[in-house]
Specification:
The complex is a heterodimer of chains A (106) and B (402).
Chain A lengths: L2 E5 L5 E5 L6 H7 L19 E4 L1 H4 L7 H8 L8 E3 L12 E4 L6
Parallel strand pairs in A: 1-5
Antiparallel strand pairs in A: 1-2, 3-4, 3-5
Chain B lengths: L2 E5 L3 H12 L5 E6 L14 H4 L12 H6 L2 E5 L3 E5 L4 E4 L4 E3 L2 E4 L3 E3 L12 E3 L3 H7 L8 E5 L3 H12 L3 E5 L12 H14 L2 E3 L4 E7 L1 E7 L2 E4 L2 E4 L3 E3 L2 H5 L8 E2 L12 E3 L4 E4 L5 E2 L4 H15 L11 E6 L2 E7 L6 E7 L4 E8 L2 E8 L2 H13 L5 H5 L5 H4 L1
Classes of the chains: A alpha+beta (106), B alpha/beta (402).
């Protein structure tokens, strides 16, 4: 299983195994990593699973779809490398993928 | 040690446990649920889970480890049968009972069953739980005829999945338009056209009179005619699980009546959250909501109230529905008499309907239109006055309106 690294806003790191095909959001929720709320459960409906993608990895991700793009547009503390983690599917190529979590999801 | 008991193992319960621990509660927590599963997401049941695109493991809101680490005693597969308020004890269906210091009722709803002849025939399905879907899914065989009773969210989401799987789908709706309780006429019309284009057939203004068959469903009787059906899905709404509250003398009125803090209006040790509550809306009216947002937010307020730090619940409700490649997002609550403003073009499959009341946005319904939804939600929350002309003008971006 690919390993995904989540870095909390306070710097605390979590490295966990996430099954292929799951979303990066699910990997966080199922491993109880604080800082991702995911109220809608991954329907791209709530924008409470906002993460910052490590720049080294950004190019390896498929581009954002329109819905994610517009949901993110209104997220707090938006940065160029912001993504909604429910829309990032874990693949073999993402072994070692790293995201930082924002201060708050609301 | 102080002891909190939560009845109902759904979205509100999972949130309440997380909030209680996050807010520093260190006493005991027992969770009682009548299903065999710990809290799971219901929205995907009529969407990705039914389609077979999401495995069961992925439905659970928290991993098992969450309950272990939070020190939660899980009592699953048992029903709460009575509340003995003077003794502060909860009776369970396995004849045991639990003492509580504070009790959270997060009992949710159950499906409304159809009461017509033949309703007990094999092949007549409902959809509320994992078990329901596990029964329904193997029956969704390409080429079979599915009758959907009720053109609401559940019925239409199942219709979308089933037609995609290659079934012949017919929807019977007693009212003159689809999702009449939840959306405005423009959306009803739009979704009707989308479903028709996908191959779903409709009988509107058509109540179901009965089911016929010999042990197994063979036809639906509706509008005075027989319509052949191999299986039926009934989605005609839900009823709040408020019976044990009512039997214990707590005020109930299509739901357990709570105050602004999600506490019972009758008993300072009892609280309620989620679909089962009748509560005050932002405008002070009493209402009952069926949605994830209400379950999550009420659970957060109920947890604080249980800890003696009540805060008023006043969040703007939001909802969503996935049908085909259409994402419907709704914020706020519409009312008859609202001024409706259309933004965008339904033919482009990307539009929104804003509901204005006294110059303020009261609700927004957005189809494939996330900016309208998000900004609309903010306009509702902040009660920002907006002009109808600007809202209707797609040349002005939602960012400029925000």
């Amino acid at each position: 299983m690919p390993k995904i690294k989540y870095i909390e806003h306070n710097g605390k790191e979590h490295i966990v195994d996430v099954p292929l095909g799951w979303s990066v959001m699910e990997g966080a929720v199922k491993n109880m990593i604080p800082g991702i709320d995911a109220d809608c459960g991954g329907a791209c409906a709530c924008a409470t699973c906002h993460v910052y993608v490590d720049p080294a990895w950004a190019a390896k991700l498929p581009p954002k779809e329109d819905m994610e793009e517009t949901m993110l547009d209104f997220a707090q503390d938006l940065e160029a490398n912001s993504r909604l983690s429910c829309q990032i599917k874990v693949t073999k190529e993402l072994d070692g993928f790293t995201v930082r979590l924002p201060k708050s999801q609301h | 040690m102080e002891k909190f008991v939560i009845v109902g193992a759904g979205q509100a319960a999972a949130q309440a446990i997380a909030s209680l621990r996050a807010e520093g509660y260190s006493g005991a927590i027992t969770l009682v649920g009548d299903e065999l599963y710990p809290p799971y997401q219901r929205p995907p049941l009529s969407k990705a889970y039914l389609l077979g695109k999401l495995e069961r493991d992925r439905l659970f809101l928290k991993p098992d480890q969450f309950y272990t680490e939070a020190g939660v005693e899980l009592r699953l597969g048992v029903q709460a049968t009575a509340i003995d308020r003077p003794a502060r004890r909860l009776q369970l269906s396995d004849s045991s009972s639990l003492r509580y210091d504070k009790l959270l009722l997060a009992t949710g709803t159950r499906v409304r069953r159809i009461r017509v002849p033949g309703a007990e025939l094999a092949g007549v399905h409902y959809l509320r739980s994992i078990a329901d879907v596990d029964l329904l899914r193997p029956a969704l065989v390409p080429g079979k005829k599915l009758a959907v009773i009720g053109g609401g969210y559940i019925g239409l989401e199942v219709a979308a999945v089933a037609v995609k799987l290659g079934l012949e789908v017919t929807v019977f709706e007693a009212l003159e338009r689809l999702m009449a309780r939840a959306v405005s006429p423009a959306l009803s019309e739009f979704y009707l056209a989308e479903h028709r284009a996908a191959g779903v057939k409709f009988h509107l203004n058509t109540g179901v009179e009965g089911f016929t068959g010999d042990g197994e469903l063979r036809a639906v009787r509706a509008g005075g005619a027989e319509h052949a059906a191999d299986l039926a899905l009934v989605g005609i709404g839900v009823l709040p699980n408020a019976e044990i509250a009512a039997a214990a003398g707590l005020s109930c009125d299509d739901g357990i009546v709570v105050n602004r803090y999600c506490a019972s209006v009758d008993d300072p040790e009892i609280f309620a959250a989620g679909d089962c509550t009748r509560h005050h809306g932002r405008d002070g009216s009493l209402l009952r909501l069926e949605c994830v947002q209400n379950a999550i937010d009420q659970a957060k307020h109920a947890a604080l109230a249980m800890l003696g730090r009540p805060t008023p619940y006043s969040e703007v409700p939001w909802f969503w529905s996935d049908q085909y490649d259409l994402k419907l997002q709704i914020a706020g609550l519409a009312r008859p008499g609202d001024d409706l403003v259309l933004r965008g073009n339904p033919a482009a499959r990307k539009f929104a309907v804003f509901h204005l009341r006294k110059g303020l946005v009261a609700a927004v319904e957005a189809v494939n239109a996330a900016p309208e939804y998000i900004v609309g939600r903010k306009l509702i929350t902040d009660a920002t006055p907006v002009s109808v002309e600007r809202l209707a003008d797609t040349a002005i971006s939602m960012k400029q309106i925000a």
